[in-house]
Structures are given as structure tokens and as C-alpha cells.
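Backbone geometry:
***
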Amino acid sequence: MRRIVVLFVLFCVLLAVVSYSMVDAQEPVTTPSPTELSPTPAPGPLPQSIFLEPIDPETIDTPLIPVGGNAGSDLCQSATDVTFLNTAVGGVTPNVQAFTHDTNDPVLSCMWPGATRPNGYRTVWYKFTPVTNAVVTINSDTSNYDTVVGVFTSTDEANPCLALQPVACNDDFTGFTSQVTFTAVQYQTYYVVIADWSAASSGQLTLNIFMQPQPGEEKWELVDNNPNGQVTHHDTVAAGEHIYVVGGQDNVSSAPTRSNRLMRYYPPTNSWETMAQIPGLGMSDLTAVHINGAIYVPGGDNGAPDVFNGTHYMYHINGNFWSVQSAPPVALGWAQAVAAADSSGYFLIGGISQKPALDPGVYGRAETYFYEIASNSWLPRPSMNTGRYGHMAARIGNHICVVGGVSGNVLLRGGECLAPFGNWQPTGDLNIPRFGAGSAIGPDGNWYVFGGMTVNANGQYVAVSSTEVFNSSTRSWSVLNVPYDLRDPNTVFARAYPAGEFWGNHLYAFGGNHYVPSLNEYQVVPLVQRLYVPSERLFLPFIRRSGASDFDDNMAAAKGLPPNFWYGGNFNSTYDFYDFYYFDLNAFSGVSVQLTGIPSGSNYDLYVFNNTKLLWGSSVNPGNLNETVNLSLASGRYYVLVQRLYGPSEGSGYQVAVLR
């Protein structure tokens, strides 16, 4: 079949990718908990960060042309690494005919019926590991043979190609070339295989592959900046009509400047007030909780060497002053406080009692204490099964739940919940293990976790962009689609140590810090962003294909042609080159497939295939001459392809019929 390479130069500054293995909705990644860190993590920068510009979703259906890059590999074990820099990337494998297929090649479930090998032939392999979430499109549009594209992850780091798990698959998107669009998850390695559908392809087979990341529509809206500037390692509490930002630090360095500020934010007007300062020189890595008109802060890091501050402060909202309450049994930092359902007090969970944090020799504590307001005293409660610090915690109904965090040399993804009068019981695992994230319970009753830190393949601490949700009904975590990633506006800079609260149907995120590669430094941000969450269950959209309403570019989307009926077709966009039809025969018959009315200045061709893609006949007259294919066919289903080689899509009407 003759093909025309359609050049569509796509210049967009796109994000570094990444793909929540998802096809129609993101599914949780089932990896064990906890995650052992090897080598020992040391703070380090994001491997690569770039600026983003939104892409018109309609471009998802346009031919995507390779813009350079390396050829693919013949084997999964040596798959060509793909790195997404400032543009989408592509590659050309000049002669796939010399490639082989392997006994371990995975089955491609999307194979069009009739394939003699469900794994395909002459497989070509790529792989990539995204440094942030992204919607990724992989397209083989200008290749000159019948391609099938599959995307896989692996459950075995040592032998990844022996434990591949399907993510996305497509056979015939436009004509006989393929395209997949899926959400790639941060720091997950993806294996991409392009297989030949046919067993006996002849001639030089050229694979053109194009890979395009895009962020999708941003759901986090920038609404304000903190008037006192940047803040990180802080906490927030919602009280009445306000959100309070408590303590934190103003910079990221070996000797950070800690804050004793208490700021009050009113969401409807984006207005701020400076309230009474926290006593002392400032406090970071603290936790705060609101109960009955008071904000409690049970210690934190005031900069003292080796130990944390164990002073228990109470802020009286109506009087705008601080007082000191009974100190917790242990001076802690990086702990979590959660109010009891009956407002009689709060739980203080985990944390660390020694410094420095993020040292392999520093382990999280498992103890849980309850501060009883009426008696101004601390009561022991059952200890967690896993000690942790830098974790996230929330009350879900009558249960107190924690998830994530770090302890020693272990980054945690697992969670556990404490029932009234019971012990801690394991619950769902995060898809991306993290610590130092913000979290809050939404109006839909689910638990939202956003931002934070994780560890990449090089053992470096890096910020997490994705937002995850704990479904209180299924007790499981799901990563939200890419538009719900928390990042700085117009960049892919993910945020560590944000904090936030719900106000009505909006989740507000305050501050945090990110790493800027171009400056080789960490920066603390003053940003206030918000995410709209409906009260009902949140259903997340997934961009697969914008598509024209008249999409008929492959056999699966073919339109039926009744016998002896002239159908008026047209090519509905500049990038539409294939129109497929089908007809059914109940008995052996002679048929004449005819194409007429081809516009002046255009050249269309006509092909007839059976259900196994076997070409039964073709008519390839030059220019706008009529095309006719006369055949004698057995019973079964047959497909008609009208291919536009050149000519405008405007006024591209033609007539096609199957005459018997």
C-alpha cells in the first residue's frame, strides 16, 4: 500500500515524562510495602525539569511525526532508553525486517482477529521512566507496515522482561498504524513494544515512532500568594471560616530560618491577617490541630541541636493569644495530630525524637498518645505496627488512619488505621511511597494526599507531583489523573512539604518547596493553590482521543455499506487519510466495489481486505480517475479502504458502493 508521510511539525515545550498505568482510569500500582532504599538516599535534585505549555487536545488525533532519536532495540532486555527533554521525541528504525521475535514477547491483547501470533512479529523495544506524571501518546503513524503498539510495566526489577504487565495496547488507529494514549505514573518504568502484525511482511520495513507527553488541563488553580512570603515544613488547620498557616521555615538550607508566624487566610476574599506569634524563635516540622475554638501545637523543631522542642502550645482563637499546656510524654518532630471524633482531645501519632531527620540511623516512633482536654493530660494508646515520621494522618469516620512516611532506611507506602477500643490494622498502600506531603479529608468523605517527597532510582529524594485519593469505601488508594497533579503554575516543578485544608468544595494547598535545576537550588514558594472537588464521588476524566465525531480510520471503526447503495463520504480534517467501510456476504458472490466523484486535484485509492487483513484487491489509478475492484468472494465480512493520497480535506466528497 502506498503511503504519504504527512509532516506536521509540532513545537510545544512539554513536560518531562513520565502514565497511571491507565487506559480509561488510573489503577493502583500493586507493589509491596515497605520499600527498601538502595542505595541509602541522599538529598538530591530532580533529574530533569522543564517548562510546560498546554497542548490543544485536538492535536492528539493528528499524525505525530518523529523528530529524531535512536532506533529501537530488537529485545526487551536491551530496550532503547527514551528521555523526554524540551520536546516530544521520536525515533526511526530503518529496517525492521532484520528484527526478530522472542519467546518471552508478551501477548498483545488488542491484536486484530486473524493474527497468526498474538505476540506479533519483528518486535522493536523502547523504555522510559517518567520523572513526573503525564498523559503520553505513542504513535507509529508514518511507518510503512502494519504495526501494533503495546505498553507494559513490570513487577520484577531484577528480570523485568519476564514479568510484564499490560498498560495500553492498540492495533490499527489510522489505517494499519497504531496509537496509544495513557497516563504514565511518576518514577514507574514503562516498556514499549512495536510489533509487526503480519507474519510474512516483505521489503524494507521502516518504523517511525513518536512519543509525546502532555500535562492536560491543570485542575489546581493559583489563587493567591502568602503576603509574608514563602513557607515550608509548616502546618495548616481549618477553623470556622478561616484557614490558619502555622509556623514553618522560610528557606531550605543546613541552618533554616524558622518562623513563629501564625497567618489567618479567608478564602472567599483571598485576604490575610497576621495573628499573635507562636512564643519563642520559631518552629518547623510541627503538627497542629483545631478543637473547640483552640489550635494545639505539641512541639516541633525550634532549631535546638540534637533534640526537638516539647513545649505544648495552645492558641485561643477568640482571644488571639497563646498559652502553654501539659507537655507530651516525648518531645517530637515530624509527628501528626488528629482530633478525636467527639472533640474531647486529639491523638499524637509517630514522629521522631532525635536528629537529624532523613538519616538512615533515625527511626520513626510507633507510639500513639491521646491528649485529653478536660484533664490536661496525656494518655497512652495502642502503638502503630510500623514506626514512622513525616507521614500523613487523618480521621476517617471513627477511625484514625496514617499512611506513608519514612523510618531509618525504609521509605513507607503502607497505611494502618486505629478503630475505637481496638488496635492498629493495616489498610491500603499508596501507589507512590512518600513523606512530607499535605493531606485532608474531602467533602466526598475521601482522603486526599498531595505533593511530598519520594526516592528515585538513583536513591535521591525528589518531589512528588501526583495527588492520590483514599476511597473510604474500598479502603484503597488511586492516583488522580495528570491534571490533578500539584505543581507550580506553568512548570513541572513538583512540591515537597506543602500543607492544606478543605474549605467547602475546594482543597487549598499552601507553600512548600521545589528544586529548580537551572539554578541548582531549592526554593521555598509562597503559592496558594486550590483544587475543586465535588461533594459526590469524584470521577476522573481520561484523555484517550479527542477524535472527530465521524471517526472511521480503522477496521474497528468501519461503517457498514449496504449492497447496491451509493454512500457519500468525505475526509473530515487535514489529517484524515483513511476511511474504512465493511460489507457482509451470506453466500459466494461476485461484487464490484467502486469509488467515484474524486475531487479534481486529489488522488484517492481503493482497497478490499478480508477479516484477517488479507488484501483481496486494489485499484490505484492516478489522479482523480474512478477506482474499481471486481472480485468473487466467499461468505464473510470484508473491509473497504478509501485512502486519500493527496488533495484538500475541504470539498473532499466522494461516492463509494458495493454492487452485486
About this structure: Residues 1-69, 537-549 have pLDDT under 50 and may be disordered. The two ends are 26 Å apart (CA to CA). The chain is about 0% helix and 40% strand. The CA atoms of residues 274 and 416 lie 37 Å apart.
